[in-house]
Amino acid sequence: MEYSTDHFAAARSLQLATYIHISMATFWTYDYACSLHEEWKFLLRSRWGKMKALYIVTRYLPFIFLATDLYLYCTPNENPSKCRVLENTESGLGIVLVIVSESISRSPHLMCLSDLIHPVFFILRTYVLWHKNIILLTAMLSTFFVSSQSNHHTQASGRCISQIVLATAFSIAFTTGVPAAYATSGVPGITGCYQSSTSFQYFIPFLLLSVFELGLMVLTLIRAIQNWRINSSRLYVALVNHNISYYACSFRELTHVRAVFLYSSTITVFPEVLSLTNVFASLLLQYSYQNILYDFEFMTLAILATRMHLHLWQTDQRAHGSGTLMHIPMSDVPSVNSTA
């Protein structure tokens, strides 16, 4: 049997995708092993609550996600229907993974300090950094809601499963249509399958939400620069640093940029525009190259969310020397004294 150029191009894309997914699984396992001691200390000493449950889901769901991923790309499969089922299962797991990191689940009036780092509070935290400015909060929530509704309408034909929660930039990027067509490699020895039909509509709300997150990062930077002489609290520094670091994951620069403020607090901006790369890849590339970084971004966000959550919990534990969690009104976060 003779193979065309398209056959070899698709086979190469599947090979590259397989290597990346195996590397990603290895990295996740290594990260888990390195933080196992700290994680079990957190799980055993922290009190049970909604945020701890969300942490456990965010931390351990990737194992199921990666197992599905590796099965999809590493086992021989000549049935496109089976590929569709596996891809949709993987997409569903990925969206749940992002939703548990991004959904608002607590009252903005009272929250646990160790919960502040979780991504669910990034909008509220920006609101707090601006001294609970109602106009700013209304603008942020309105923009976020409009972005989510845009995602809902463009993905309606694809039966988007994230419509019950405000969608985020990442859920938009990775949500694919259920009835999409899939193809397997025609070259013997190449495993995996790829989506042969493409829809470009979802990149619009994805880009809109990416710009929205950039706006939140800028607002955080402005407030941090304004307060750098006033507030030297360790918790406040961690709050701002984590806000910037998480947003920077959506807009990773071409070089490492370091901004020093809040008494020598350093923020590292990541070296690649990962989210926007996914948008352009979906528009310009073919075969498996279109979504080759989708799952990588899922795992990056999960690692960031759990690592940051652990870090702030440890900061609180060192400050108080006990397993209890301190609760303070959000309005007091920017003015926590230096003894915290």
TrEMBL record:
Q: Which InterPro entries match?
A: DUF6533
Is Membrane tagged as a keyword? yes
Membrane-crossing ranges are 129-148, 160-182, 202-225
Please provide an example of a Pfam family that matches this protein in its UniProt record: DUF6533
Record domain DUF6533: where: 19-64
Instruction: Write out the entry's keywords from A to Z.
Output: Membrane, Transmembrane, Transmembrane helix
User: Which protein are we looking at?
Assistant: DUF6533 domain-containing protein
Source organism (scientific name): Suillus plorans
